[in-house]
Write a structure and sequence with these properties.
There is one protein chain. This protein is of the alpha+beta class. It has a domain of 188 residues: Alpha-Beta Plaits (2-Layer Sandwich), CATH 3.30.70.1790. 26% of the residues lie in helices and 18% in strands. Strands 1-9-6-7-5 form a five-stranded antiparallel sheet. It has a five-stranded antiparallel sheet with strand order 8-4-2-3-10. Strand 6 and strand 7 form a beta hairpin. The termini are far apart. The relative contact order is 0.17.
């Protein structure tokens, strides 16, 4: 049976969960999304700051205002401003999102002779769970291949198999439900696993078909999209007027506004935008044309004007 008999399970608060997931000096991504307004804010800050009372109070206020709260499962490199694969520092966790027949899938994991005891089990809604293992020595390719095979084996969400994934933070409400449900987390093991401990090592096909609906089924963008307020007219205060984001002394801490993107949206840097403009944007679709105008800001200061940063 997949349980750690030497460990006494315990419930975790949001602060305790953050401290278990990360080292104090790690950069972690927090994503706050209000489904009713469509507004999303992503913050990258030191784990010790996120676990602190000021940041937790801000998250509680966001949750009370109707926002869902998520945390990136792997630390971010120093100096990075968004949650992309290139910016993942290293792989600390693998996970499963059990959103269909979650109780049965969780029982299958607990009774498995192949999967080791999970480190953390989150109850995200009635009959739905997120399962997390703490790992070491994984490359991103190895982790994502394992995530895909775990999802296939235990019926997890196949879309939640990327190393940049955000999962729910315990202690805050799941606003996706008609009735309030507070996400709960239990630590069930303090083990640290290697690839050898997880026996699902089949290689994922290199070319896997994706669909518009499977890219981001939760509606959460995999990385921060920085907004040019002078073009779009958005500021952080416009997104959340009553919020004061706690400040951090770390220069690595940043907060940016995030815009919703449909499944065909592609992010363009200024450099790419300039190349596209030189080639001629006449054949591009309207979404890309709009981004070219947005990205081709006259100066860096204007491009990020109005977007709050945590310094």
């Amino acid at each position: 049976m997949s349980t750690d008999s030497a460990f006494t399970p315990r419930s975790l608060t949001a602060s305790e969960y953050i401290r278990e997931l990360f080292e104090p000096a790690d950069n972690a991504a927090i994503l706050v999304r209000n489904r009713s307004t469509g507004h999303t804010i992503q913050t990258i800050a030191k784990a010790e700051a996120i676990a602190g009372p000021g940041f937790q109070t801000w998250l509680a206020n966001q949750s009370a205002a109707g926002s869902d709260v998520f945390v990136g499962m792997n630390p971010i490199k120093d100096g990075a401003y968004c949650r992309t694969k290139q910016n993942i520092k290293d792989i600390r966790h693998v996970y499963l999102d059990l959103d269909k027949k979650g109780d049965e899938a969780l029982d299958a994991i607990r009774n498995s002779v192949e999967a080791p005891a999970p480190n953390f089990v989150l109850d995200t809604s009635p009959g739905k769970h997120q399962v997390v293992w703490r790992v070491t020595g994984f490359s991103q390719d190895e982790a994502e291949s394992l995530l895909h095979n775990l999802a296939n084996q235990f019926g997890g969400d196949l879309a939640a198999t990327d190393s940049t994934r955000v999962l729910r933070l315990p202690g805050f409400a799941n606003h996706k439900l008609p009735e309030e449900f507070i996400v709960q987390a239990r630590q069930e093991s303090d083990a640290l696993y290697t690839l050898r401990d997880l026996r699902f090592t089949k290689t994922r096909p290199k070319h896997r078909a994706t669909s518009a609906t499977s890219k981001h089924p939760t509606g959460l963008p995999p990385a921060t999209t920085r907004v040019n307020p002078s073009t779009i007219g958005l500021t952080l205060n416009a997104l959340s007027p009553a919020v004061t984001i706690p400040r951090s002394s770390s220069s690595a801490s940043r907060t940016t506004a995030v815009t919703e993107k449909h499944s065909g949206y592609a992010r363009y840097t200024v450099e790419k935008a300039q190349k596209e403009l030189r080639r001629g944007a006449g054949h591009m679709n309207p979404v890309k044309q709009l981004w070219l105008v947005t990205a081709n800001a006259p100066s860096k200061s204007e491009k990020y004007k109005g977007i709050a940063s945590m310094k």
